[in-house]
């Protein structure tokens, strides 16, 4: 690993933490309804939405009401995106005249954007009209992120309220997340990206005559190139901030129109984790004990930082097979060195592995390099980060509520070990809490493992596997891990835009989102109804390095025990055979 | 038979009961048994048989983890039969070995439970024999001499009245409404000295199964059949129909969900392996036997097997401490306690206060005060009174005199006068509390001198009790009665503080005295001049602040507070009302027992948590044993994961299974004894237990499995 790599990593992490502190405080004020800097500016917009939607912002509901509102909201979002895709041929803002999207692909995409997964089985510029991209996908980018944040806020209320029936108003939490947090941040980031050269236009593709005509795979002569453009910057800003990751272009953030410069790359990298990191601190503010927020952020960093360093050093070491052929893979002033297959020359190793780690730690899924071309262990890092359940930062809101589910499990075992009925922040963890936490933990492994198992035995699944042996297995495992954890990043190398994968991955995404979100809301409701137990020297402290270490151990052990056999048959054996 | 029950009637003519004489019933674990060996040979033999009997699927189904193990074991037998028939998926010997491993895993779990139950069973049998076919002299009206029948005890309902006379075994729990008698309660308490039970007051409760030694009692039944104290105790020591506590249910849920994950992991490994073999073009299909082995190794069998033993053993430890809890929930709540309310007298101080000094009023000689005080105390048979006599003798050589010879009239202490003393030769001598004596003197036209008042306040401030001595309207001075704080209690409270438990001393003393004793004993807080209402208020305040409160009590006026407290230990010597209100009864009637109960509660939870962590941590090593063994045929490169260098794939799988079974047996003593508890803060406890059971749990199986592998190779079994 070069010093320059370390500097880039340190810069990105430093910027992240620096920005997270004020943002965390700001979001706490937003959710607690306290006056904020932007309140006067955006307050009218918030109230307008309530008036338009007939929402009484003072009325709160219990967890069941909250859940129903959340599900209804997503159902409408799903229907809208599905219909937009199917009907886009008849609708305006379709300069390239793209036709209806195939039904299973449309289903897959609608589920994918509703669940904040943003798995893309399609190529954006050749499939989706501008209208679909803007009204369907970009809106869902906001909606799914805001919904995740709302669910988190409901859970925090569950932890802080005593003997309360209500856990908040879903619509208020949703609107506040979108209006006060996602919208202003997206506007600023989009403008900065435009300044860097990210495209933002309603025009159809540009056409350029090739200097040297060529022939397509089928032998037809090709004399001109279509250069796809569109309203990209506005979608890319929210896709990073909202941990969505669905690219405007098929090549995602490695496309120069999405991510033109090193600065745009750095900003987008940071934006991926910004809100997820800040929410940890928001949590600390809202539970009136900032140490608790820092402890959770620390636990996430304890996993993320080594992951970045491992991936970077492995990719920088290069491909052992090429090394035996005498290929120079050492970094010099003229070349980045290391394993550059599937990576952009303009980004090099560290920016690629940093992005890969961030995007899989968060349930973002956007890529600026192809993870499929990483060395086996280099590719193992993003895969493991996904399989840990997207709780190391994870999706905005969803990552932290997933982590809090792990906290419940960790607190339970640790609480027993200190001889007390387990409690977290003064709330006793009883059978109901454990049931909901267990359900939330259980859903993802079942979806991923069963999905992968089905895919590798049925012929429809095998048909999509383009690489032989363990690598082909890794690709399927990665796809289901990505879908089941609502990440959306693709290992590539898997022909996934088939009815089988569209449907199977769609189901995995639904399980991964809602079989976690609903139990979490039930957990919130049950916790809100409890008394607050006083803390004493006999109470398990949950802000100490020891607890952080224990929490990390629980996350890794649960993830490791679940996926070790599968990983052994994929990246691990591939690595061992590679030597 | 319908007759008037006349008393006295010779007991044997009316009341017959079967079973061994009660006096011979083994008292439950009285004294010293906590240090006794965990089990004797006979118990272990019995438990070994029980382990087989418990293989009944209906029993196994209560424990999901072990039920899966049993299903796996049965399945392995089917595979074995198939192999013996010549169509085996693996060598018959290998399947047999794995099958035995699985069966022993299930059996060892049952064995642990049986051993734990066995320890309680002996006690239960003794108790049950005392209950068998009791009869009662039913009274139509609740008074002696009323008409009635001889009825079986089981037909007695709450509210019924019956007569118990010398030699009778009391047929049901109840409250004495008439009479006074000495009762042998050894069957319950293990204490052979008889106790007095009488109507009214704080000694009115009787327990079914105890025996009247002298005189007679009319008793009103307070417990429905099957819900008596004895029934509860039997159910408790047997561990039968044990209600799972919320903590146990939550842990069960966690274990079940982990089991489901491991089930999915194992089940999906079959299609994965099929795909891998086809892709690699090497290896043979994964035998089901190996998958079963992997599943059983991954399941949290260690904690699953020991869970019920831990619960039963915890109850057993409580019984051995001579405490009966109404539910397991109460025991666990004891581990959560934040605040202990402790009665000063008997818990913090020795029951008797001792006179240590005479402070004479101005113009009175100290000797005169001593002589008068001694006279006033001659009628006083309390320890305090005697200590005044002793002090007077020590200081001034004043000998005790025979009051009757002096022709004195004794004036005993009453709750109204709050004074005692005697009248002799026209002298009226009294001693009592400051305000009581002041009032008495004032009534005669006298007054309390200022220096006496000053002395009294000073004595009180120093944590002692002032007794004022007066003769007629003349006040002679103050006798200092000092509370003696129990030895070692201060360090006990310091321990509690480190555990995060606050101690509050409850006393009827005035605030000055209370503060001084509180300081000397090292409690965190005190409630002076406590009334039942003040106690109840204090408990509610603590609970409103989110704290769990524990207290002890014996009197009927303690009942509301006992009912309100989260952990309420009633003294067995106390009233029925107190016992009903509490959720535990201390048979020794020792208020300090609360501290032990807290430790037992904590130990119970700690043992569960630590073994759960250990059980899951173990899985890491098992993966490194089994995964390479499973796939080395398909991908030879995976041999690199065989970090333990186990001899062959077969020996690797077998070693892991054997380790998994043996670790259960190895941990039975720990499950029964409980994880060692130290009175330190939560942070220190967590560090220690994480290190021992977490890190230890990850590391231990590596050498363990390796050793078993070496042994298997040495024995030529693989």
Number of H/I helices of chain A: 19
Structural class of chain B: alpha+beta
Number of domains of chain A: 1
Report mean pLDDT of chain A, rounded to a whole number.
93
Helix content of chain B: 40-55%
SSE blueprint and pairings:
The complex is a heterodimer of chains A (579) and B (718).
Chain A: H1 3-31, H2 39-53, H3 63-87, H4 103-114, H5 124-127, H6 130-160, H7 170-196, E1 206-215, E2 221-227, H8 233-241, H9 262-286, H10 290-317, H11 320-324, H12 348-361, H13 376-387, H14 398-417, E3 423-424, E4 427-428, H15 431-457, H16 459-463, H17 469-484, H18 499-528, H19 545-578
Antiparallel strand pairs in A: 1-2, 3-4
Helix pairs in contact in A: 1-9, 1-12, 2-7, 3-4, 3-6, 3-18, 4-18, 6-7, 6-8, 6-18, 7-8, 7-9, 8-9, 9-10, 9-12, 10-12, 10-13, 10-19, 12-13, 13-17, 13-19, 14-15, 14-18, 14-19, 15-17, 15-18, 17-18, 17-19
Chain B: E1 3-4, H1 11-14, H2 41-53, H3 57-60, H4 64-87, H5 92-131, E2 135-139, E3 147-148, E4 150-152, E5 161-165, E6 174-184, H6 186-189, E7 195-198, E8 205-206, E9 211-221, H7 229-238, H8 246-280, H9 288-298, H10 301-320, E10 323-325, H11 328-335, E11 339-343, H12 344-348, E12 354-360, H13 366-377, H14 383-396, H15 403-406, E13 409-411, E14 419-424, E15 427-432, H16 434-443, H17 450-461, E16 464-471, E17 474-482, H18 489-498, E18 502-506, H19 511-521, E19 525-527, H20 532-544, E20 549-553, H21 559-564, E21 567-571, H22 576-581, E22 584-586, H23 593-617, H24 619-631, H25 649-673, H26 682-699, H27 701-714
Parallel strand pairs in B: 11-18, 11-20, 18-19, 20-21, 21-22
Antiparallel strand pairs in B: 1-3, 2-4, 2-5, 5-9, 6-7, 6-8, 6-9, 10-22, 12-17, 13-14, 14-15, 15-16, 16-17
């Amino acid at each position: 690993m070069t010093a320059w790599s370390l500097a880039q990593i340190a810069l990105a992490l430093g910027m992240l933490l620096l920005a997270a502190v004020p943002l965390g405080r700001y979001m706490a004020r937003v959710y607690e309804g306290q006056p904020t800097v932007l309140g006067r500016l955006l307050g009218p917009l918030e109230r307008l939405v309530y008036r338009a939607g007939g929402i009484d912002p003072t009325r709160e509901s219990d967890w069941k009401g909250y859940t129903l509102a959340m599900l209804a909201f997503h159902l409408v979002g799903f229907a809208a995106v599905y219909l937009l895709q199917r009907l886009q041929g008849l609708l305006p803002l379709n300069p390239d005249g793209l036709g209806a999207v195939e039904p299973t692909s449309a289903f897959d995409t609608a589920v994918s954007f509703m669940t904040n997964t943003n798995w893309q089985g399609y190529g954006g510029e050749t499939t989706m009209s501008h209208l679909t991209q803007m009204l369907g996908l970009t809106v869902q980018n906001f909606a799914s992120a805001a919904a995740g944040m709302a669910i988190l806020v409901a859970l925090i209320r569950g932890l802080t309220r005593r003997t309360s029936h209500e856990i908040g108003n879903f619509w208020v939490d949703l609107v506040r997340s979108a209006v006060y947090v996602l919208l202003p941040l997206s506007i600023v980031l989009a403008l900065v990206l435009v300044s860097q050269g990210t495209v933002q236009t309603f025009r159809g593709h540009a056409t350029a005559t090739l200097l040297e005509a060529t022939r397509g795979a089928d032998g037809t002569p090709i004399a001109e190139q279509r250069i796809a453009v569109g309203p990209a910057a506005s979608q890319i800003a929210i896709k990073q901030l909202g941990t969505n990751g669905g690219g405007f272009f098929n090549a995602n953030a490695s496309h120069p129109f999405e991510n033109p410069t090193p600065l745009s790359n750095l900003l987008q990298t940071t934006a991926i984790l910004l809100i997820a990191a800040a929410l940890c601190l928001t949590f600390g503010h809202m539970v009136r004990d900032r140490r608790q927020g820092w402890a959770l952020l620390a636990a996430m960093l304890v996993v993320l930082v080594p992951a970045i360093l491992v991936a970077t050093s492995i990719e920088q070491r290069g491909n052992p097979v090429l090394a035996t052929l005498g290929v120079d893979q050492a970094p010099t002033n003229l070349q980045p060195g290391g394993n550059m297959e599937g990576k952009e020359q303009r980004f090099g190793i560290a920016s690629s592995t940093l992005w890969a780690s961030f995007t899989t730690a968060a349930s973002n899924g956007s890529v600026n390099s192809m993870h499929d071309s990483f060395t086996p262990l280099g590719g193992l890092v993003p895969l493991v980060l996904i399989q840990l359940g997207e709780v190391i930062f994870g999706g905005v809101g969803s990552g932290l509520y997933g982590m809090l589910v792990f906290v419940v499990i960790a607190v339970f075992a640790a609480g027993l070990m200190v001889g007390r009925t387990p409690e977290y922040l003064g709330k006793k963890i009883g059978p109901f809490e454990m049931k909901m936490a267990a359900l939330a933990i259980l859903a993802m492994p079942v979806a991923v493992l069963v999905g992968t198992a089905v895919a590798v035995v049925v012929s429809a699944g095998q048909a999509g596997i383009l690489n032989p042996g363990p690598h082909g297995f890794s690709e399927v495992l990665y796809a289901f891990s990505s879908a089941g954890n609502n990440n959306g990043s693709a290992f590539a190398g898997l022909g996934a835009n088939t009815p089988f994968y569209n449907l199977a991955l769609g189901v995995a995404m639904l399980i991964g989102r809602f079989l976690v979100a609903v139990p979490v809301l039930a957990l919130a409701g049950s916790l809100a109804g409890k008394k607050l137990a006083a803390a004493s020297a006999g109470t398990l402290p949950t802000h100490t390095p020891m607890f952080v270490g224990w929490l990390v151990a629980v996350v890794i052990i649960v993830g490791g025990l679940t996926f070790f056999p599968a990983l052994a048959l994929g990246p691990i054996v591939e690595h061992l055979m590679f030597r | 038979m319908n007759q008037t029950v006349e008393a006295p009637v010779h007991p044997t003519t009316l009341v017959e009961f079967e079973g061994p004489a009660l006096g011979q019933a083994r008292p439950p674990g009285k004294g010293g048994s906590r240090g006794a060996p965990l089990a004797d040979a006979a118990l272990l033999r019995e438990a070994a048989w029980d382990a087989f009997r418990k293989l009944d699927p209906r029993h196994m189904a209560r424990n999901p983890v072990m039920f899966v193990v049993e299903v796996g074991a049965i399945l392995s037998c089917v595979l074995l039969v198939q192999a013996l028939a010549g169509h085996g998926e693996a060598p018959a010997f290998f399947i047999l070995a794995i099958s035995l491993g699985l069966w022993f895993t299930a059996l060892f779990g049952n064995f642990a439970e049986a051993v734990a139950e066995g320890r309680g069973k002996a006690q239960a049998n003794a108790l049950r024999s005392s209950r068998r076919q009791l009869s009662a002299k039913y009274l139509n009206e609740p008074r002696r001499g009323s008409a009635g029948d001889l009825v079986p005890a089981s037909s007695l309902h709450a509210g019924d009245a019956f007569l118990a006379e010398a030699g009778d075994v009391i047929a049901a729990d109840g409250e004495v409404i008439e009479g006074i008698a000495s009762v042998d309660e050894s069957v319950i308490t293990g204490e052979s000295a008889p106790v007095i039970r009488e109507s009214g007051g704080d000694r009115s409760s009787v327990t079914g199964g105890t025996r009247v030694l002298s005189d007679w009692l009319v008793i009103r039944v307070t417990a429905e059949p099957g819900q008596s104290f004895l029934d509860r105790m039997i159910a408790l020591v047997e561990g039968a129909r044990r209600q799972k506590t919320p903590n146990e249910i939550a842990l069960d849920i966690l274990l079940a969900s982990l089991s489901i994950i491991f089930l999915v992991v194992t089940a999906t490994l079959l299609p994965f392996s099929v795909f891998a073999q086809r892709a690699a073009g090497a290896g043979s299909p994964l035998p089901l036997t190996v998958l079963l082995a992997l599943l059983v190794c991954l399941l949290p069998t260690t904690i699953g097997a020991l869970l019920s033993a831990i619960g039963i053993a915890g109850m057993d430890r409580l019984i051995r401490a001579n405490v009966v809890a109404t539910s397991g929930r109460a025991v666990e709540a004891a581990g959560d306690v934040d605040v202990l309310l402790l009665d000063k007298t008997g818990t913090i101080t020795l029951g008797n206060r001792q006179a240590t000094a005479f402070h004479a009023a101005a113009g009175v000689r100290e000797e005169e005060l001593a002589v008068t005080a001694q006279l006033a105390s001659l009628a006083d048979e309390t320890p305090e009174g005697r200590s005044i006599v002793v002090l007077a003798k020590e200081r001034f050589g004043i000998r005790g005199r025979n009051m009757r010879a002096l022709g004195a009239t004794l004036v005993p202490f009453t709750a109204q006068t709050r004074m005692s003393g005697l009248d002799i030769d026209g002298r009226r001598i009294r001693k009592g509390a400051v305000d009581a004596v002041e009032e008495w003197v004032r009534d005669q036209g006298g007054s309390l001198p200022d220096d006496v008042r000053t002395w009294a306040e000073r004595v009180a401030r120093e944590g002692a009790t002032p007794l004022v001595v007066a003769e007629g309207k003349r006040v002679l001075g103050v006798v200092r009665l000092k509370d003696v704080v129990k030895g070692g209690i201060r360090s006990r409270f310091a321990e509690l503080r480190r555990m995060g438990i606050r101690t509050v001393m409850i006393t009827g003393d005035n605030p000055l005295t209370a503060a001084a004793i509180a300081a000397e004993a090292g409690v965190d807080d005190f409630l002076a001049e406590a009334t039942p209402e003040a106690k109840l208020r204090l408990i509610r305040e603590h609970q409103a602040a989110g704290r769990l409160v524990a207290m002890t009590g014996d009197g009927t006026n303690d009942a509301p507070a006992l009912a309100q407290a989260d952990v309420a230990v009633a003294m067995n010597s106390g009233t029925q009302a107190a016992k009903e209100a509490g959720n535990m009864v201390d048979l020794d009637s020792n208020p300090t027992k609360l501290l032990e109960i807290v430790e037992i509660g904590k130990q119970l939870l700690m043992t569960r948590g630590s073994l759960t962590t250990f059980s899951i941590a173990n899985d890491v090593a098992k993966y490194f044993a089994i995964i390479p063994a499973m796939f080395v045929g398909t991908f030879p490169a995976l041999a690199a994961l065989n970090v333990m260098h186990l001899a062959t794939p077969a020996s690797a799988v077998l070693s892991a299974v054997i380790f998994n079974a043996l670790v259960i047996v190895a941990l039975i003593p720990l499950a029964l004894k409980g994880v060692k508890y130290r009175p330190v803060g939560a942070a220190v406890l967590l560090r220690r237990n994480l290190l021992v059971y977490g890190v230890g749990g990850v590391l231990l199986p590596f050498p363990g499995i390796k050793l078993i592998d070496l042994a298997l190779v040495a024995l030529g079994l693989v």
